[in-house]
Amino acid sequence: MMEVIYILPLLFLVACALTAVLMKDLLGATIILGAYSLIMAVVWTMLNAVDVAFTEASVGAGITTVLMVAALSRTVRGEYEPAHEARGWKRKRFSITKVSGFFVVVLTAAAMIYGTMDMPDFGDPNAPANLHVARRYIEESRHETGVPNFVTAVLASYRGYDTLGETTVIFTAGMSVILLLRRIRRE
Amino acid sequence: MFESAALAIILSAILVLYRGIRGPRICDRVLAINVIGTKTVVLIALIGFIYERPHFMDIALAYALINFIATIAFLKYREMGRLD
Lengths: 187, 84
Prior knowledge:
heterodimer, A: mainly alpha, B: mainly alpha
């Protein structure tokens, strides 16, 4: 039963991704990507990565969707059609750009799958990530930082400067987006 | 019991996704993603109970707050053609 609950959202994600790629209407593709982000957040929650799930829902389903709609409102809604197709010439089914792009995608996916082959199993207690510093965080972070949750302790105390830098980056990005999207008053 | 409920909700989300993919009009798609978002909220609450961590309920509540932002953006774009 639990395996089915794990597998079905992943199939849902594949269906969403294929639809978003194949759809000609870009607004529809944006909506499908929003659904993708929501279900991806469920998958993160199933993996017990609650903070990642939260980021996925707010950034993926919220901010990214709004930004894409804003970009569509400044451009056009349909996908780019080359000029010769508009003149009614016969559309080539396998053009050189499509075939080469497909090969690049397949090669990249094969390389990434090959890279995951020698990774440890999911939740393996003897994985290198669980042997090195994780034990120290679990045992000592309560004394050293006083934060009950050790993910929060790592983010806010051990890597405090890193988090400060990230916050600066996000703040700068937010200001840039506000500057780009602000209402331009036409006299 | 929680597993069965989660399974039913995922299956119904897949049915709604069909409407989101086929939906001839943009309103069908917006409605579909809204329903999927609501199902996500319930699903996260159920996962919390399956994992015996009921404080996932707080996360589900926060999701319900985030849920409508994209819908508002789509509908505003549909009605006014721009966002600002």
